[in-house]
Structure prediction request, 56 residues.
Amino acid sequence: MAIAIKNIPVLTGKDADYFNNLVEDAKNSPLTQIPEKMKAAFKAMEERSRKFVIKK
Prediction:
């Protein structure tokens, strides 16, 4: 049986530290606070995915 090989993004450097800090803070908080920068990044990703065209 063949296994598909996929690229898996890996966070490194400041981005990884920032993400890990968010995770640690969320573990200790009853509610998760999403920073405005992250909300903006989510919206940008959503827009890019809407505009993505699959070529046949």
